[in-house]
Amino acid sequence: MTTTDLPDATNPALDPEWESPAAVTLGKHVLETDAKRGYVRASFVAGDNFVNRGGRVFGGFLSAMLDGLCGHAVRLTHEAPGTPQVTLELKTSFVGRADKGTLIGEGFVRHRGRSIAFAEAELRNEAGELVAKGSATFKIGK
Question: Which domains can be identified in the chain, with CATH numbers?
Answer without folding.
Answer: 26-140 (3.10.129.10)
